[in-house]
Amino acid sequence: MLSVLRGIPASPGIVVGPVHLLRWEVPEVRHRLIDDAEIESEIARFHEALDKARVRLRLLRARTEAQAGPKEAAIFDVQLSMLDDGEMVKAPIALIQQNLGAEKAFDFVMAEWRQHFARSSSPMLREKVGDLTDIHIRVLSLLLELPDHDPVDVPPGSNAILVTHDLTPSLTMQLDRNCIGAIATEAGTATAHVAILARSLGLPAVVGLRQALSALQGGEVAILDGTDGTLVIAPTDDEVAAAKHRVEEEAGRADVMRELAHSEPVTRDDHRMVVRANVDIPEESELAAQSGARGAGLMRTEFLVVGRASMPDEEEQYASYSRVARAFAGDAVIIRTFDVGGDKLPVGGFPHEANPFLGWRAIRMCLDESELFKVQLRALLRAAVHGDLRIMLPLVVTVDEVRETRQLISECVEELAERRVPFRADVPLGVMVETPAAAVACDTLVRDVDFFSIGSNDLVQYTLAVDRGNANLAPRYTPFHPAVLRLMQQVQTTGAAHGLDVSVCGEMASQPLAVFALMGLGIRHLSVAPRAVADVKRVIRGVRAEAAADAARAALAASTAREAETLLRRRLRSELER
After folding, report:
1. Is residue 422 within 8 Å of 413, Cβ to Cβ?
2. Are 357 and 271 within one domain?
3. How many domains would you assign to the chain?
């Protein structure tokens, strides 16, 4: 057995704790025939598994409702109703009566149902494939008497290291964060959404640990180091002691970093930067506001809808956006409209697509579902009375999308005026530049928008044709590729020429080396993970903008990403040592 697994650092920090395996995938089932005398007991065993699955779902529903609310918990009502569906019960029993083992009978029926639903012309039916898969896994695991790896079963206070193949946002909702100390996944990269969410929650994480599930049994003690991307299995006493010593050192360093976080982000040659925070969920806005950030440069709103059985109404959204606006006490709060799609799918009504990252997502979905979009826009206009709120549109590739949104905003203004509720009609509207098309043609947008925000995560992905969630391609995913840097420079130059603020809000803005490069490109607004504020300010205060500009010019002229990164690293080290 491997003693050290190496992956990709995703969220910093060290945790020593027991491994909790989450094997949330359909298990393999062998073909098993039974005698006539076993049919009755096999049917009883099938009913027993269904009963146990219902108990588990009710427990999961209760926990989710207590932690996240009744609307979030409603997703499990769908699965409970499926378990009570007469056809789902009758079809496996009919196969059992033909001498097929219960687990194979259920496996066969569920595979057939999932295939049928996936090919349906109805988006509502296609979206139920995820619920069918959950039921498929849960009931088969019970019939096969597999170890129970349900996420609700992490012991309270165990500080467990959750190890799984991948962790979707909807699955993350089910986890008790008082029990989980760290996350390790076989899939993913440092910019995958599990990594972003882990950083937002302050959970150390390592992704891309390709052999993790086969190398672990569950329950063994391990050390996860989210800074260097390792998982040490069954460590020695000396290794545990060393890890705990590092945890203590990090705690001591935290006091220094807190002081640095609240310092002014000014370079040694007196160039001022603006450092804002990324906010993933409204509940973290108060902590983000205390991180030393001056506002929120990106509030993601898709986590209001992912994993839910229904879309949030106007009042719920208004309350969420108002909470963030109030938390930052007058500093700018930039809220991105629903960036739903790709690997962030809501429950119900969303089409299955072969390539969702290039499909019906983000601003495309919002404009096509204009009534749903207007609910969000009205909530944003209302929340804007509580602070300096600004609206940002994701995945824009043409000015037509901005103009259509402005028309919808005008309609929302009229509707709110008729209702006589407080709102602001003059909310600034900006766009995320996250495709080569938007970057190259950003001059076509300048008359219709109030600001640009470069979404580095997707800009790198689309520019380099590298899936940012694919661990096999992680070395090829780099923001230092000259093509990416040149696109960013073009956006900055165009924005500055027209008096528009240009910020970077992707994960790149939280990396010290990338901060140095972005400063050199002339970018003066950054939005970073709250935990990264201190490190980002450390770089800003330790360098000269003039030196950063010289380094960026050298990187832009480089032939490869490796060459550009090496140049930047050498120049940054030299600056910090001066």
Report:
1. no
2. yes
3. 3
User: Per-residue pLDDT averaged across 494-512, rounded?
Assistant: 93
**Segment 420-443 mean pLDDT:** 96
* 505 catalytic residue (yes or no): yes
* Per-residue pLDDT, 191: 65
Does residue 30 sit within a domain? no
What pLDDT shows up at residue 348?
45
DSSP H helices, 352-442, are 362-368, 370-383, 399-419, 436-440
Q: What is the DSSP letter of 274?
A: E
Chain position carrying tokens 């190259």: 440
Report how far residue 89's alpha carbon sits from residue 87's, in angstroms, rounded to the nearest whole number.
Answer: 5
* Domain co-membership, 239 together with 103: no
**Do residues 427 and 388 make contact, with C-beta atoms less than 8 angstroms apart?**
no
Catalytic residue among 20, 193, 386, 481: 193
Q: Give 324's pLDDT tier (boundaries 50, 70, 90).
A: very high
* Separation of alpha carbons 393 and 103, rounded Å: 47
Q: How far apart are CA 181 and CA 189, in angstroms?
A: 19
Angle at CA of residue 529, ends 249 and 563, nearest 5°: 90
179 part of the active site: no
Report d(CA 472, CA 469) in Å as an integer. 9
Tokens for 18? 């027991």
Token output for 28: 């393999």
500 and 536 part of one domain:
yes
Cα–Cα dist 273/264, whole Å:
8
Catalytic residue among 136, 412, 505, 525: 505
Domain boundary among 143, 175, 201: 143
Closest C-alpha among 147, 34, 515, 130 to residue 344: 130
